Each structure stands twice: as C-alpha cells, then as structure tokens.
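agent: user wants the full assembly modeled, not chains individually. Plan: 1) parse entity lines 2) check alphabet per entity 3) run joint structure prediction 4) return tokens. Steps 1-2 passed, two entities, 640 residues total. Proceeding.
--- entities ---
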Amino acid sequence: MPDVLVRPRNVSSATTERAVVRALLIALALAFLALFLILPVVVVFAEALRKGVAAYFATFGDPDAQAAIGLTLTVVAIAVPLNMVFGIAASWAIAKFEFVGKNLLITLIDLPFSISPVVSGLIYVLLFGAQGYFGPWLKSHGIEIIFALPGIVLATMFVTFPFVARELIPLMEEQGNSDEEAALTLGASGLRAFLTVTLPNIRWGLLYGVLLCNARAMGEFGAVAVVSGHVRGFTNTMPLHVEILYNEYNFAAAFAMASLLTLLALVTLAAKTLLEMHYGEALARTPRV
Amino acid sequence: MRIRTVDVAKEFGRTGALRGVSLTIEAGELIALLGPSGSGKTTLLRVIAGLEAPSAGRVFFGEEDATGVAVQKRRIGFVFQNYALFKTMSVADNVAYGLRVLPRAERPPRAEIRKRVRDLLALVQLSGFDGRFPRQLSGGQQQRVALARALAVDPRVLLLDEPFGALDAKVRKDLRRWLRELHEHTGHTTVFVTHDQEEALELADRVAILNAGRLEQVGTPDEVYDRPASAFVMSFVGDTSSIPVEVEGGRLLYAGQAFRADVTGTCGGGGRLYVRPKDIVVGTPETGLLLGTVVNAHRTAAGRRAQIALVGGPETIVEAEVGLAQQLKDGERVGLRLVRARAFPTKEGSP
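--- prediction returned ---
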C-alpha cells in the first residue's frame, strides 16, 4: 500500500507523552512497585518456608502463637461488628439529618486517620492506666482495661473507626431519604424500612467498609502495642507476636506468623477488587433513575 | 375519601413554608396543587401524607382527625418525584411491598398477593415485567411501577409529587392522558403537585393555586383561567401582560391618555390591567385606543405573537396574538383594543 497519508511529525494530543518518556515512566513505576511491594511479599513467604513446610506449620502449634491468633480473632470479632454499627449510625445521622456541628462530626470521624496510632494508644493509657484519670476507680472496682482485652479492643476500634463511616456517608447522602419515605408510606415500620430498604441499598458499600476495617483491625500494631503490655499468651496479638519472635531471632516463626497476616492482606485485596469489579457502580454514587 | 386541611401552617428555615392553608378535597376528585417552586405545594402534599408534621392546623381524612396519625397508619399512596423505587427489588417485589409489611392478621395469603401484583401490573400496562429491576426500566415505566406500588395498599388518597417532572415531553403527554383514564377507572381521590399550569388545567377536575405558602384560588380549570381571583393567578395561569393605569371619573388613563377597554374588576384610583395575548386586537392607531410600536413579531405554532411597546408611558411591553394574515413591521405604529381585561389594585403580588 502506498504511503499516501504522511503523518506529520511532532503532532500528538496535548496530554500524550512521547513514547520514550512513556516507557521510562512505566518502567520507573514498575520498579518501585517491585521493590517496595512485590519483593517484601515474596520475601515474607520465602523466609517463612525456608526451613521447610513442616517447620512452617510447627510454628502454629506453639501455644503462644495460637493464643496470639485467638486474641486477634477475638478482638476483630468484637471491634468490627461494633464499628459497623457505629459506622452505620454515624453515617445515617450525617447523611439524613441536618444539625448543628455536622461538619465538625465529619472532621472528627477522620481523626483516627490523621493521628499517630501510638498517640491513640497513649490516650487510653492516660485515661484508664494505673496512673490515669480513671485508673484508681477502675482498680478499686476490679476492672482491667489497660494490659487486657478491653484496652486492645478500644485501641483497635479507635484506629479502625473511619472505615465504615467514610464509605457509607457519601453513599447515603447520594441516595437521600425518599426510598425510606416510600417504605413508610407503604406501611413499613422504621426498623422494617431500615432492614428491607436502607440496608440492601448500602450493602456493598458496607461490605467494602467492613472488609477494610477488618484488615486494619487484624494488622494494627502501634496503638495496640501501647495498651497491650506484651504478655505472651495473654495480651499478644498477631502483629505483636511477630515482633517478639523477630526480636528473639526466631526468624522462621516470625515470618510464618507474618505470612498469615500477609495472606489476609492478599485475600482482602482480592475481595476488594472483586467487589469493585462487580458492584463498582453501586459503590460509587449510583446515578438515579 | 374526603380530605380536609384546616389552617395548616408549616414553618421552615427557608422556602416551602405554609401559612394557614384550608383546602377541602372532595372524595373521588382529581385535584392539582399548582404553584411556582417554593410556594409550599409539595409541603402541603407531604403534610397530607403525614411525612411532614404541620406546626399548626389540622388534617382530616373524612371525619377522622388524622393530624397526629403516623404516616404508616394513614393508608395513603404516595408517588415520589424520583419514584423512589426499591433498587434492590424486582418490579413484583416493589409492588408487593405494601402488602407484605401488613401485620400478619391483615396480610393476604401469598397466592392472593401474587394475584394482586399481577392485576396491578396489568392495570399499569406492565404485564410480564414482574422480574425486571427498576434500573432496567424507562422513566415512564418506573413511574407506572411506582403508581402500581402505591395503589397496592388500596389507599384512601393517592398523592403524586410532580408525577411527570422527570419525563420528556412526549412521554409526559401520553402519561397524562393515561393517568386521567386510570383515575376515571379506579376513582381514587387523587392530589398531584405540579408547577406546569398546562398540566394542571388539562388533567385536574379542580386546581388549587398556591403562592408563598398561601392558597390564592381553588376552582375548576375554567374558573381559574377565566375568572382569576388575583393578579398572581391570572399571571401564573397562562400568558398575561400587565399595564399600569389610572382611573379618573370613570375613565381609564394610560400615561394621562384616556383609552377604551372592556374591563372586569376594580382597582380604585390606580392599579394594573391584566390582559391575555388573545384578548388584544391589533389595528390601526386611532384616538381612544392604546397606542404602541411593534417591537417584534414572531411565528408561533398556531399564529403570530407580537411584542408591542406602549407609547407615552413608563416602559411597558404587551404581548398580542395576531392572525397569520396580518403582517406587522418592526417599528410600525398600532392601536390596541383590549377586548377583555382584568383590573387588580396595585401592590398585589405578581410574578
């Protein structure tokens, strides 16, 4: 075919880079990704399995390791459902009502994201610790919060509070009140309207928020480290146990434990991607009509 | 069912407030609440529904005082402006919702619910759409589903908020006619809100016109169009031009010049004349007529519309309908005969 159409040189759309530049940018991004994300994940699993599969699974037979896994699961089982309820309540209040201080509340919900987890742990020590404001009173009533399960749950909840609320607020604001009002005019009670109309409307957003909340709750280190006291077999969560094992030069065990947390992260990522693929439309503001 | 609101008031921070509205809706009638945005028409509808509590006044359903009755117990059918169909439910589940949430003792058996849903979908001409989801329907279809859902509970009154607002012109016209037929068929007392005067006049048995939270006039389309109770009603229901005039010794004056016109109503020493385009005859300038200059004449669907600036007074432009045969040049001097005009005292709210 004769080359009739001579493409003019140096003509490209304003937002398109030259091919060389493009290749360079992509290579740079990939290199970063490999170095900081993929390599560590590979290392975690390689180190964990270095002494063989048997040694890997032996790690989880250790009672302290089992206690750590059990504690993490317990904390998550308490903190995530509670945060789900608080998250729904907060976003309901913000999205469906007008009240004084609404913007302040929205800002406050984001606070755990901007504050260092160590500080949020310290707050609870300051409040409920032996030398804290409520320490003496709690002690005289035999209630243990710091260096015990309640403290760990509180710290975890504080850190993971924004996940559900942040996901739901824009979703609920966009959906407005009329679906609920329609249910009421048809005779449904408030609870019934919530269960049959509101909840199904926000289900994917809620699941998404809970997923992220769960991942963070299992992996939380800083805030929990402050309030836990590192009592092996009692107040050690999985991330804390990883640190202890590592400090004892028990690398295989440390990485084995770490591999569990990494696995969780990968599963969360996969589930999150799947949700976005299938319900991306329902997650991001659904257009009405 | 006969619905009455008595001195209903509702205070809001901003617009849509009501200031003492007393309206009687007769059993079986189709009534339109017409008004500009912020006039309180939707608020009135929501007060009747029980979605909004009035800050004063009472609402009666028949003889029953329904003011304190919860929305769930009022047995009303409400069609929302955006339809508010339940996105996660099929069409059939949407329609069945009101029946399924009934307390066990009143709830019809399943087979009965299925049959009712089928009948209602047939009524709104959506047979076979049972399994579809709202997002798979066009705007007009969604609207009919919303209507079927509202009718499922056999409501005592059917309330529609801007039922045709979100539809395009063609669908809107078809649906309008269809809704009228449906109303004649089912006989439900029906109240609908609209800001479109044409829609209100065409569809309703009676029209209630609201302005700034007050009821301006309630009447048949003929009454509100031909015998408007206020300048606002006259201007809002149909095109109207207004002319500032003085009255002196039984004579009408515009800018000091006397002119003849057939006028109903009084406006004391001075006020405004309101006149519709079709009630102005444009002819040659003669003494005793209002005089003006043609600013512009353009073709409309049925005829020609001329903008005419009156001569001698404060800048006033009136609109007149002229025959297709009548050629008007821009800048031409003309005389206007007002065949039918209405006078209202000045300082009355006009848009």
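agent: reporting back. The interface with chain B takes residues 178-179, 181-189, 192, 196-197, 200-201, 203, 286, 288-289 of chain A (CB under 8 Å). Chain A has 14 helices and no strands.
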